[in-house]
Amino acid sequence: MGERVDESEDEIEIKRRHAAFFVGIAEEAERELNGPDQTLWLAFLETDHDNFRAALSWSLGEGGDAGLGVRLAGALWPFWFARGYLSEGRRWLERAITRSAPAATPARAKALNGAGSIATF
Description:
mainly alpha
């Protein structure tokens, strides 16, 4: 039996929804990482780290939604920084910046800021 290359519309929609869900979580966590519950939020993000990776892989891959990917990478950079995942964060941020439209958007600016901050260290 040959390997299936094309994803069905349902599979694509499920992956898009998964990515969008985790973008929402990451953006909420980003707001909370500077507050008194920082330790709890970092632990929460750690628990779903593989889901974030899956969402980034799909969104920044061929046929994905690069807009979701750049938002997710931009929201996760403080987590990667705080946890010492500098190499991983840098790779995702570079990929997000490369795959996203070059237009000046808040999400792209956040990803560029994160890439610069991580590169500094």
